[in-house]
Design a protein that fits this description.
By secondary structure, the protein is α+β, with helices and mostly antiparallel strands. 12% of the residues lie in helices and 27% in strands. Strands 3-7-6-5-4 form a 5-stranded antiparallel beta sheet, with no helix packed on it. Strands 1-2 form a two-stranded antiparallel ribbon. The protein is rod-shaped, with a radius of gyration of 47 Å.
C-alpha cells in the first residue's frame, strides 16, 4: 500500500493541533522544506481606569445667634426668635430667648408670644 507523504503530514498536523498548546511552536515536517507554525499571540489589555469624583460633604448650618437685644415688656410676636429654650417655671411655660423671657398665650388666630419679666 502506497501512502502519500502529504496525507501523513496532514494527519500529524491535525493530531498536533488536537493536543493542548503549552506555548511551544509545532514543527511540521514534510518531504520538502520545514515549516514552523507561528506562536499564538497573546494580547494583554490594560486595566480599565475608573474615575470617581471626590466626596462632597454637606455640613449643617451653624445655629442661629440668640436674640441679645432686650425687648420692651408686653411686646408680642407670632413666632419665637431663633435660639429660644423652652422652660417650665412653677408649672407655667416660658421661653428664654437670649436676655428676654417670653410666655405663650392663645388667641382666636393661634398662639402668640409676649415678652415678660424674668420669673
Amino acid at each position: 500500500m502506497r501512502t502519500n507523504h502529504l496525507t501523513v503530514a496532514v494527519a500529524l498536523a491535525l493530531a498536533a493541533l488536537a493536543t493542548p498548546l503549552d506555548g511551544r511552536a509545532w514543527v511540521v515536517v514534510r518531504a520538502a522544506p520545514i515549516y514552523v507554525a507561528p506562536r499564538p499571540v497573546v494580547v494583554v489589555a490594560p486595566a480599565p481606569v475608573v474615575v470617581v469624583p471626590a466626596p462632597v460633604y454637606a455640613y449643617p448650618p451653624p445655629p442661629p445667634n440668640p436674640l441679645t437685644t432686650r425687648l420692651p415688656f408686653n411686646t408680642t410676636m407670632w413666632t419665637l426668635p431663633p435660639g429660644c429654650n423652652a422652660l417650665s417655671v412653677s408649672g407655667n411655660p416660658y421661653y428664654q430667648c437670649g436676655v428676654n423671657w417670653m410666655r405663650p398665650y392663645q388667641s382666636a388666630n393661634g398662639t402668640y408670644y409676649s415678652v415678660v419679666p424674668p420669673p
